[in-house]
Amino acid sequence: MPGSGESEIVLIPLDEPGLERLLEAAVADAEPTEVMPPVDGPAGWTEARREAFLAFHRRRSLNPDTAIETTWVVEVDGRVCGAARLRPVSGRSALEVEAGVWLGRSARGRGIGRKVTAVLLDAARDGGAAKFVATTTVDNAAARRLLSGTGAELDVRGAEIDAHLDF
Ligand SMILES: CC(C)(COP(=O)(O)OP(=O)(O)OC[C@H]1O[C@@H](n2cnc3c(N)ncnc32)[C@H](O)[C@@H]1OP(=O)(O)O)[C@@H](O)C(=O)NCCC(=O)NCCS
């Protein structure tokens, strides 16, 4: 599989047309559990999960009355490959920013996650954050490696891992 070296990776602020494209990419190339909170029902991209995916992003990013985070569509060479997000959270003393990234299966393992994370770190710093935090699971080797590569400290909490990096 080719690396991301010559690919153009662009983060585009999420909007309604982008959300439709993001859903298409998720359905084609990712498991629901990798890209959204659990929804009851049979496995796979059921109608209920597609609706929940759209509602999730509208509530958290697109509706100004309820938005709590900024989400970007990750495009690689013009193709939607995943999403990245930053959510300001109130830390003990300074602004913390919580980050998340997912990529479709066909885009993984090529260095794209690493580059997207670097963009998120810059955006968090530029936004005045003092701390960058993220959560993953013990069995997610790629995410663990990605997060430890930023210099973040990783704390194991049962099956979960909290990563935090002070700027
Ligand atoms: C986690 C995720 C964003 C990583 O992005 P990616 O583009 O696949 O990762 P990269 O290719 O940039 O690799 C990042 C690091 O992880 C390592 N890595 C990548 N895939 C790996 C795997 N399957 N197992 C172990 N390490 C892996 C790479 O070698 C690299 O480490 P290095 O820089 O020290 O060499 C991506 O795999 C993904 O979307 N997974 C599903 C959703 C998810 O788990 N999101 C994260 C939740 S916190």
TrEMBL record:
Keywords: Acyltransferase, Transferase
Domain N-acetyltransferase: start-end pairs: 9-167
PROSITE patterns referenced in this protein's UniProt entry, alphabetically: GNAT
GO-annotated molecular function: acyltransferase activity
EC number: 2.3.-.-
A Pfam family recorded for this sequence: Acetyltransf_1
InterPro entries from the UniProt entry: Acyl_CoA_acyltransferase (IPR016181), Bact_Acetyltransf (IPR050832), GNAT_dom (IPR000182)
Top EC class, one word: transferase
UniProt protein name: GNAT family N-acetyltransferase
Organism annotation: Amycolatopsis halotolerans
